[in-house]
């Protein structure tokens, strides 16, 4: 929106950012990435801060199963493709 200044946000531990979802109150940005969902506070005008980083890495078993299917290691991550508001307390990923 015009009232929101642009800021650049980078996090060295986050790869393959795939999807963004802004909360209804526009104070929180949910970011779907590789093996992670981040919650970023965007309510302040002077910058963004990570509130939470939910790790969603595949388990050892998932990695073994994935490799057995002949997939490359790079393709065995979890890629968060969809983020949607489910209700006031949950989002769907
Ligand atoms: C994820 O990011 C890496 C490094 O930038 C890139 O090589 C790879 O193709 C990306 N994978 C997907 C599924 O977007
Ligand atoms: C939101 O949905 C989840 C999953 O169905 C449910 O467990 C939770 O109680 C719901 N929250 C509200 C406030 O309805």
Q: How much beta, percentage-wise?
A: 25-35%
As a percent range, the share of helical residues equals under 10%
Q: What sort of overall outline do the alpha carbons produce when their principal axes are compared?
A: elongated
**Rounded average pLDDT:** 90
Strand order of the largest sheet: 1-2-3-4
Q: What letter string, H or E per element, gives the SSE order?
A: EEEEHEE
**If you compute it from the alpha carbons, what radius of gyration comes out, rounded to the nearest whole angstrom?**
15 Å
- Poorly predicted spans: none
What is the total tally of β strands?
6
Number of helices: 1
Small molecules held by this entry: 2-acetamido-2-deoxy-beta-D-glucopyranose
Could you tell me how far the N terminus lies from the C terminus, measured between alpha carbons in angstroms?
A: 25 Å
Give the assembly state of these chains: single chain
Biggest β-sheet, characterized?
4 strands, antiparallel
Question: Structural class from helices and strands?
Answer: mainly beta
């Amino acid at each position: 929106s015009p009232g929101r200044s642009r800021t650049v946000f980078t996090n060295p531990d986050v790869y393959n950012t795939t999807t963004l979802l802004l909360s209804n109150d526009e104070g929180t940005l949910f970011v779907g990435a590789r093996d992670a969902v981040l919650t970023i506070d965007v309510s302040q005008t002077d910058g963004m801060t990570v509130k939470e980083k939910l790790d969603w890495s595949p388990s050892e078993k998932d990695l073994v199963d994935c490799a057995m299917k002949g997939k490359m290691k790079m393709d065995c991550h979890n890629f968060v493709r969809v983020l949607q508001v489910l209700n006031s307390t949950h989002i769907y990923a």
